[in-house]
């Protein structure tokens, strides 16, 4: 965990906490996305809410976009929103190898990525075809899921 702290220097505590489970899943899958603080003056006015925190997302050293949380929302909603935004950046960004990335991987044999959803008070990666195929955000194994991974949820 101490190694990860170099990536998020300068990030306000709330967005750092909301990012934690998403970053765990990125790291497990080997996706090198890093985040750094974005000041309000660096943020397009249409993205600025009354009480928001922002971070730049970098992939392979290149800025791919900004992520934000609304401090008026619950912890689960903040993480859900970040997971959703970050997934868009990962899926939209071409990789050096040129191969498509499906993050996070779904059940073995499913070509689609999983989708972030709030179920109860927790944020989950859920199969878009089978709602019972799901793992908590922060606990994805970083590879195609097996039925064993799912029963633990
Ligand atoms: Zn699936």
Describe this entry's structure for a reader.
- The protein starts with 12 loop residues before the first helix and ends with a helix.
- A hairpin with a 7-residue loop joins β5 and β6.
- The strands form 2 sheets. A 3-stranded antiparallel sheet has the order 1-2-3, with helices on one face. A 3-stranded antiparallel sheet has the order 4-5-6.
- The model is unreliable at 1-6 (pLDDT under 50).
- With 153 residues, it is α+β, with helices and mostly antiparallel strands.
- It has helices at residues 13-28, 75-92, 147-151, and strands at 33-37, 52-59, 62-70, 115-119, 122-126, 134-136.
- The protein contains 3 helices and 6 strands; from the N terminus they run αβββαβββα.
- The chain has a domain at 2-92.
- The radius of gyration is 15 Å and the shape is globular.
- The longest helix has 18 residues, at 75-92.
- Bound molecules: zinc ion.
- Zinc ion (ZN) binds next to loops.
- Zinc ion binds next to loops.
